[in-house]
Amino acid sequence: MEADLLNQPLRLPNGAVLRNRLAKAAMSETLGTYDNRPTLGLVRLYRRWAASGLGLIMTGNVMIDRRALGEPGNVVIEDEADLPVLRQWAQAATAQGAAIWAQLNHPGKQSTKGLNAYNLAPSAVPFREDMAAFFETPREASTAEIQDFIARFGRSAAICKKAGFSGVEIHGAHGYLVSQFLSPHHNRRSDEWGGTPEKRRRFVLAVYAEIRRQVGPDFPVGIKLNSADFQHGGFTEEESIETIRALADAGIDLIEISGGTYEAPAMSGTMQEPRKASTVAREAYFLEFAERVRAAVKVPLMVTGGFRTAAGMNAALHSNALDIVGLARLLAIDPDAPIALLQGRDSLQQVRPITTGIKPIDRMGLMEILWYTRQIKRIAKGCEPHPGESGLSAFMKSVFNSGWGTFRTRRLRARS
């Protein structure tokens, strides 16, 4: 019998040690207030997850600018006003031996209509026709606005360090701002921030450099990066590997591999192309790409998406294609799953595609966010998740809550 690698500690390049190789990947929580402050619900939620034995916990989206929200209820860290609750949030995990990293994000164009006064992106590229009813065409960011993005990432990271978080992760995947700069589909600039793969990489490297400048060499900094966008004319695997090489050379501590965007969700079960038989057998969605990355760089790799069994996770670790197994949706329906997995047993719950029966909605993969967010909110209230909840029912309730949340967010912003 092969050794159980899930339970083995991992030392990161900067010397920080994770107690095991099992991580919670970021998921949408929207547990902030409508004026975007952290709440005690986050403390309860992360205390529950940390008690399961996870080695590393990534928070859900923490936004860097109150003017640029991805969803109502996003937490925003742009100043030190919320340090007391942020410290409780961090301690909920660290007091139980888990590392907790804040995932820092800016949505760019990927924000629903009406939530923000306007949306900025590398270029003014609209969403595809069937999504235009939900998302406005963004305005192209100026050079000064790009410099402001970079400074805000660094400032938010410094506040996270002061609050006691164990590290930060740059969200460079899933079609948000950093991902948009990397993609030739979204970034059609001809200045120093676009036009060639090297120039499109300048933004993410500048964000990393500013974060590192503000937090110092000993504070872990990672990134979640797409293997590809899965869109015509988008970010390719070859460009992703070159970006990873550049980040590794710059000193990044961890790279989490993922893929897709709102317009092409790679892990939701709504993609048109069937998964390869080899992918199904090996469980993880991006394992073959991780093997290519491992041949190119030595930086620790985390792969998220598709893992189902303890045996599959250990097999992936034994292949040396990755160093950390990332779990997301399973932890929304079974927050205690790591207890079993670290003992070599499988969770009794299984992740399933969530559908509403409304084809345009199901094609966008929105329920893979909305339905699981509802389960996360149950855990944050001290309740158990409801794995059997109807997709249609969850959608209707989520639409109402999102509409109300957008209204309340705009009203509060208008008063401030």
Secondary structure layout plus pairing:
Blueprint lengths: L9 E2 L5 E2 L3 E3 L15 H12 L4 E8 L11 E2 L6 H12 L4 E7 L14 E2 L17 E2 L2 H21 L3 E6 L4 H6 L14 H4 L1 H14 L5 E6 L10 H14 L3 E5 L18 H6 L4 H10 L4 E4 L5 H9 L5 E4 L1 H5 L3 H5 L17 H6 L2 H14 L10 H25 L1
Parallel strand pairs: 3-4, 3-13, 4-5, 4-6, 6-9, 7-8, 9-10, 10-11, 11-12, 12-13
Antiparallel strand pairs: 1-2
Helix pairs in contact: 1-2, 1-14, 2-3, 3-6, 7-9, 14-15
Notable traits:
about 425 residues, two-stranded antiparallel ribbon, about 15% strand, TIM Barrel, alpha/beta, globular, eight-stranded parallel β-barrel
Commentary on this structure:
The protein is an alpha/beta fold and 416 residues long. It has one domain (10-415): TIM Barrel, CATH 3.20.20. Helices cover 39% and strands 13% of the residues. The chain has helices at residues 40-51, 83-94, 143-163, 177-182, 197-200, 202-215, 237-250, 277-282, 287-296, 310-318, 329-333, 337-341, 359-364, 367-380, 391-415; strands at 10-11, 17-18, 22-24, 56-63, 75-76, 99-105, 120-121, 139-140, 167-172, 221-226, 254-258, 301-304, 324-327. The strands form three sheets. An eight-stranded parallel barrel has the order 3-4-6-9-10-11-12-13, surrounded by seven helices. Strand 1 (10-11) and strand 2 (17-18) form a beta hairpin. Helix 2 crosses helix 3. It is globular. It starts with 9 loop residues before the first strand and ends with a helix.
